[in-house]
Amino acid sequence: MMEFSQHLCPKFERALEILGKRWTSMIVYQLLSGPYRFVNLEQSIPNLSGKVLSERLKELEAEGIIQRDVYPETPVRIEYKLTEKGRGLAPLFTEIAAWAEQWMEPPADLPES
Amino acid sequence: MMEFSQHLCPKFERALEILGKRWTSMIVYQLLSGPYRFVNLEQSIPNLSGKVLSERLKELEAEGIIQRDVYPETPVRIEYKLTEKGRGLAPLFTEIAAWAEQWMEPPADLPES
Prior knowledge:
The structure is a homodimer.
Chain A lengths: L9 H10 L4 H8 L6 H7 L5 H13 L3 E6 L5 E6 L1 H4 L2 H14 L10
């Protein structure tokens, strides 16, 4: 298993910074299930505002983690989807799911699923 | 590999919420290398204010991810360290490091390490 040194390698620190931003991991996770249009992505994540979603999508696009596909239909259709780099994050969510399953209590208002 | 459904299991969503908070993953990562005193933890993470660090430590302690050890010395010594639940996050950072190594460019101002 990886040795964890106090020294943060720049690439790793940059990755933590990107992934550690509020909502980013939730957005990437949703896109792992396929392309989304803006309005559907916004609806799929409770409490996420359109403004913040728009910011995060721009950041993720600039990082090459997602791509924005424009379909010249009427009206124009725009979809967001993960790039290969973005799909490379899938194992991260597999680990989060395993950790959550082992350690997290179900929220008080919900029966054990 | 895990099938990614649009439906967010409550435990998983809760885990994403906790880990997705700004600075949380960076703080947990630092603690993977061992216990820290507040001031050293604050110094080890650039741009992180004492106020936010204090908030995150309280949240992480409430979630059972870290523990706060008080040593009755003079002056009193207080250390923060990961619990077993917290150490369970280590594979997550191994995945982030692997992803960063494969996909991230070194920041422009730094030579390839």
